Give the backbone structure.
Amino acid sequence: MQFTFVPRGVCSQKMNFEIEDGIIRDLQVEGGCNGNLKGISSLIRGMKVEDVIERLKGTTCGFKSTSCPDQIARALEAYRNSL
């Protein structure tokens, strides 16, 4: 299933997920820190949605109360709530 999320409070502009049977198959992020987000996308590929939420939720960036990893977790929560 394809799922698109527009993050808030971070540099990235759009997150496109491919999720199958509760497993993240792919994540493409537009904007943000390209190398870091490619790395995070690679690390979470093959993981369960719940595990990614648990690991990334609440991560901050500098003085911001959120971050791209936190927004990934929020996106996955939104996905889970939409089922």
